[in-house]
Design goal:
Layout lengths: L7 E5 L8 E5 L3 E5 L15 E5 L2 E6 L5 H13 L7 E8 L6 E17 L11 E7 L2 E6 L2 E3 L2 H5 L3
Antiparallel strand pairs: 1-6, 2-5, 3-4, 5-8, 6-7, 7-8, 7-9, 9-10
Amino acid sequence: MTVSANRFLLEIDGIAGQIEVTEVNAGGITHTPHTYQPGNRPNPARGLGNFEVEEVSFVQARGLGTTATQLVQWLMDCLQGREIRKRNLRVITLDEAGRVPVETVEYLSCLPTGYKPDNFSGSSSDVATFTFTVIPEDMRVIFGRNRVTGVNDFFNRF
């Protein structure tokens, strides 16, 4: 079953209310596995290597309740060292009717890394937006009710 890219929800732990976003630039995982090393050095466990979870950014329309204020306050608290709180973020893809979750990508232990108001133009009729960026430590994917283990869950077994 295919789904439209325009049917999704965004949730962030600790941010009250629905987050109305127009676009999510989802990050993925990149992995550099260890390779076989000839000689007398021990070989690493097959497949284990360095991994990195990419940044996640989303575009939100301005003037939508207190969500923007909460996001910017979270960023400022982290920047000024008042309260460095990691939060989980979920991008939920919905079915064609927009009611049933088909896939959830959960980004774990995110810290905010950026806030950028988009450009303004006197001749534009577009909605004013801003872009907010976070960097997660890990991610996992949930298809329907089937959870795929996160990368850190996998590496912590060894």
